[in-house]
Amino acid sequence: MNPLIISASRRTDIPAYYADWFYNRIREGYVCVRNPMNFHQVSRIDLSPDVVDGIVFWTKNPLPLMSRLEELWAYPFYFQFTLTPYGKDVEPGVPSKNDVILPAFQELSRRIGPERVIWRYDPILFTDRYTMDYHITFFRQLARRLEGYTHKCIISFVDLYRNTQANMNGLGFAPLTEKEIMGLAQRLADIAGKHHLVLETCAEQIDLSPYGVAHGHCIDRTLLEQIAGYRLALEKDKNQRPECGCMASIDIGMYDTCRHGCKYCYATHSLKTVARNTQAHAPNSPLLCGQILPEDVVKERAVKSYKEEFPQFSL
Questions:
Q1: Nearest CA to 82 among 177, 187, 10, 169?
Q2: Which terminus of the chain, N or C, has less C-beta within 10 A?
């Protein structure tokens, strides 16, 4: 039996583009997910609050999801909210950071609490425009404006995949050296501390503990336990990279379905495929894109809750 933490989603921005679909799946009580490696293999996943031990949302724009947050209160949940310094040259589909995204972050925090909104300043990349000084200046401005609206910031440094390397041609991209990573981490940690933020890394090998930066857990058992009020007997996700500290989860997203168009995104391989997939999206389908086909093999995913009530102590 698998523990049921829902990741929504590392593969696409469900809050930004598929909020109605997600709420329909919550109402229906299940979701179907295609195996990325075997198109006709489909998992049917129970979404009952009785078995779901938590939901982790990953987003750059939660606004479409925020109008119906009351439908989520049966679940422990929190947000991994990416807010970076990049403009349209790197993140062409993301609305204005100053006019839309920052106010959305603050409003989300007011509504669900700062402990449930984790700020992701990632991935960090250097180009002719986005220099070390640029990052330090922008991080300081964001940390000041987000103080009190979040307790934690997660950073990572860009990983180059075949598709991301091609996408970043023309930006003047330069890989970060270890010296640059350590120098930048030290400066960011200093700024974070001044604004009462814990700084952690996401899936990074490099040891930044001398600067007070620990290896993070983006799908965080301790945080879910604090939100839910019970213990969770969860284990590390064996399907992620060794450097990843996340707990095991089931991702309900789909690759090549995010319309942000971020140049560094590993989950988008082709904008033409994104356009084709999003045209196949139907809010009432159990699948994020498309429908169940006659040749599909649909199997119920064996899951159960791993919650353990905290022991009660009497004085």
A1: 10
A2: C
Burial 149-173 (b: 16+ CB within 10 A, else e): bbbbbbbbbbeeeebbeebbeebeb
What separation, in Å, do the N-terminal and C-terminal C-alpha atoms of the chain show?
A: 37
Q: Which domain holds residue 20?
A: 2-309
pLDDT digit of tens for each residue in the chain (315 aa)?
A: 666 899 999 999 999 999 999 999 999 999 999 999 999 999 999 999 999 999 999 999 999 999 999 999 999 999 999 999 999 999 999 999 999 999 999 999 999 999 999 999 999 999 999 999 999 999 999 999 999 999 999 999 998 777 788 788 888 898 899 999 999 999 999 999 999 999 999 999 999 999 999 999 999 999 999 999 989 988 888 878 777 889 999 999 999 999 999 999 999 999 999 999 999 999 999 999 999 999 999 999 988 888 875 544 333
Specify if 120 maps to a domain.
Answer: yes
Q: Is residue 314 part of a domain?
A: no
Residue 315 lies in a domain: no
Residue 121 domain-assigned (yes or no): yes
The number of domains in the chain is 1
